[in-house]
Amino acid sequence: MIYRFDKVGSTNDVAKGYDAGSVIVASEQSKGRGRFKRGWASPKGGLWMSIVVKPSRRLFEYTFIAALAVLKSVGINASIKWPNDIIFEGKKLCGILSEGVFEGEKIEKFVVGIGMNINNEIPSELRDIAVSLKEVKEEVNIDSLVEKVVMNFKELDKKEFDYILKEYKKNCYMIGKNVAVRGIKGKISGKVVDVSEEGELVLETDEGRAEVGEGDVSIT
Ligand code: BT5
User: Fold this and answer.
1) What separation in Å is there between the alpha carbon of 95 and the centre of ligand 1?
2) CA separation for the pair 161, 167 (Å, rounded)
3) Strand partners for 14
4) Which atom, in ligand 1's list, is nearest to the CA of 85?
5) Does the model's pTM come out above 0.85?
6) Are the C-beta atoms of residues 97 and 33 closer than 8 Å to each other?
7) Spacing, Cα 113 to ligand 1 middle (Å)
8) Which is it for the CA torsion 12, 125, 94, 176, positive or negative?
9) 40 near 29, Cβ under 8 Å?
10) Which residues contact 141 (CB under 8 A, 6 or more apart)?
11) Cβ(120) – ligand 1 distance below 6 Å
């Protein structure tokens, strides 16, 4: 069931109050969130949505599924930047924020937030790093795009993890690139050689192989 709102703080927060299978869509967010408590610009004309799922897979698998669902739905030659971005010609088209909802110690459900620049203007401070679908293709109907994303998400969710990982890696343009990853443990540099079964970015560094579980990647 798709629930549509005009303006909310964050669709991820609204989604926490809904059952698995629900999809929350808002025309605008006043407190859109990225990872690490960063803000997410969410003006009118963009696609700001959250899908509520049962935690039948690991959280990062849903991020991978959402990335693939978006790629399949937008019909442009975009690719994945590990772990949660869809990039077109070096600029961010879409970001994904997957979060767990706990009841005490127990994970009750997951919320998979997808934010995509579609027909919206990109705020001036983000113009060097962000792009909209309108700029690279054409204006599209948000409601039908939401339906496409949800349909592709559900189809992909039926697949085994091996398939998801293989497709994710095929579409992840970072493999083979020299990168620096900034995370909570500091900075680590190396060549990306793989994405592991645990969803980590695998680097070949001067000190040997290293797996990175989270962080911001830049190509060096
Ligand atoms: C993300 O975080 O990329 C996850 C964004 C998830 C947004 C969706 S919208 C629906 C749902 N409800 C929410 O509240 N959130 C989710 P991260 O990798 O941390 O990237 C954040 C950074 O992206 C910011 O620090 C900016 O540099 C940049 N940014 C902010 N708004 C953007 C936009 N509209 N388009 C492209 N880049 C943006």
Assistant:
1) 5
2) 10
3) none
4) 3
5) yes
6) yes
7) 10
8) negative
9) yes
10) none
11) no
Q: How far apart are CA 121 and CA 100, in angstroms?
A: 31
Chain segment 121-149, per-residue pLDDT in tens = 999 999 999 999 999 999 999 999 999 99
Q: Residue 37: which region, alpha, beta or left (left: phi > 0; alpha: psi -120 to 50)? A: left
First vs last C-alpha separation in the chain? 43
Give the tens place of pLDDT for each residue, 13-70. Answer: 999 999 999 999 999 999 999 999 999 999 999 999 999 999 999 999 999 999 999 9
Q: What is the 3-state secondary structure (H, E, C) of 122-159?
A: CCHHHCCCECCHHHHCCCCCHHHHHHHHHHHHHHHHCC
Separation of CA 161 and ligand 1 centre (Å): 26
Q: How far is CA 103 from CA 33, 59, 79, 110, in A?
A: 22, 16, 35, 12
CA distances from 73 to 6, 20, 78, 124, 150 (A): 23, 22, 11, 27, 9
Determine the atom of ligand 1 nearest the C-alpha atom of 123.
Answer: 34
